[in-house]
TrEMBL record:
<keyword id="KW-0732">Signal</keyword>
<feature type="signal peptide">
    <location>
        <begin position="1"/>
        <end position="17"/>
    </location>
</feature>
<protein>
    <recommendedName>
        <fullName>L,D-transpeptidase</fullName>
    </recommendedName>
</protein>
Length: 219
C-alpha cells in the first residue's frame, strides 16, 4: 500500500496567494503537513474502499486544511480552508432551515462526519457542492458577497489556522483549486467528504477506525 503520510506530505500545497491582492500576499502561506488523524482516516479509506470508487476529500478542521483524492485513493492536492466560526462537531437542530441572520455564533459549526457530497442548486440558482444539504453546509470558493471586513482571503493565506474560522459552517476553498480540480471530479457522480472532529474523539465520528485498529492489532 502507498505510504499515505509521505504521499500527502510530498504534495505541493495549492496556495490561494494568486487570488489575493499583492499587498495582502506579503506573507507566504505555511506548508500544509498532514496530521496523525488525517493520515489515520486516509489509511482507513484506502484499506477499506470506504469511498466506494468515488473521489473523496478529507477536511482537517483542527489544522484548517483539506486533502483531495481521486476515486482510486491517489492524493491530488492539499489546500487551506475556512470553516465555521464555532468549534463543535454537531449541527444545531433546525439550523438548515434558518436564514443566515437567524443563526447565532454558537450555531456556526462545520459538522464532523462522513458525507456523500453532490452538486445542487443554492441561493441565486448557483450550483455548489453540498456536503450536507440538510444543515446547509456546502464546499465552495469564498463568496463574492463576503464582507471585506471579514478578510476571508487574507485569513486563508495566513501561515496559521488560528484565524480560519469565519464561515457560517460552509467550507471555503481557493477558487482555482475548486474550479480546476474539485468540480471536474465531483460534478458527475459526487463523492465523499470526511470532516474530522475538533471536539469529539476520532473513533466516535468514524467508528470503523476502531474496528481497523483492533484488526491490525490481532496477531
Amino acid at each position: 500500500m502507498i505510504n499515505l503520510f509521505l504521499a500527502l506530505a510530498g504534495l505541493a500545497s495549492v496556495s490561494p496567494a494568486a487570488e489575493v491582492r499583492p499587498s495582502a500576499a506579503a506573507q507566504p502561506a505555511a506548508e500544509i503537513t498532514p496530521s496523525e488523524a488525517a493520515v489515520r482516516v486516509a489509511d482507513w479509506i484506502a484499506a477499506s474502499g470506504d469511498n466506494r470508487a468515488l473521489p473523496y476529500i478529507i477536511v482537517d478542521k483542527a489544522n484548517a486544511s483539506l486533502f483531495l483524492f481521486d476515486r482510486k485513493g491517489k492524493p491530488l492536492g492539499k489546500v487551506p480552508v475556512l470553516i465555521g466560526v464555532a468549534t463543535g462537531d454537531d449541527a444545531s437542530p433546525g439550523v438548515g432551515s434558518k436564514n443566515l441572520a437567524e443563526i447565532g455564533p454558537a450555531e456556526k459549526t462545520t459538522p464532523a462526519g462522513r458525507f456523500l457530497a453532490k452538486y445542487g442548486l443554492a441561493a441565486g440558482r448557483k450550483r455548489v457542492l453540498w456536503v450536507d444539504y440538510a444543515t446547509s453546509v456546502a464546499l465552495h470558493p469564498i463568496p463574492g458577497s463576503a464582507s471585506a471586513k471579514e478578510r476571508r482571503r487574507q485569513r486563508m493565506l495566513s501561515p496559521t489556522p488560528d484565524d480560519n474560522r469565519i464561515t457560517f459552517g460552509c467550507i471555503n476553498v481557493p477558487g482555482a483549486f475548486y474550479s480546476k480540480t474539485v468540480r471536474p471530479l465531483f460534478q458527475k457522480k459526487g463523492g465523499y467528504v470526511y470532516v474530522l472532529p475538533d471536539t469529539r474523539p476520532l473513533e466516535a465520528v468514524f467508528p470503523r477506525l476502531r474496528v481497523q485498529a483492533l484488526s491490525n492489532a490481532t496477531p
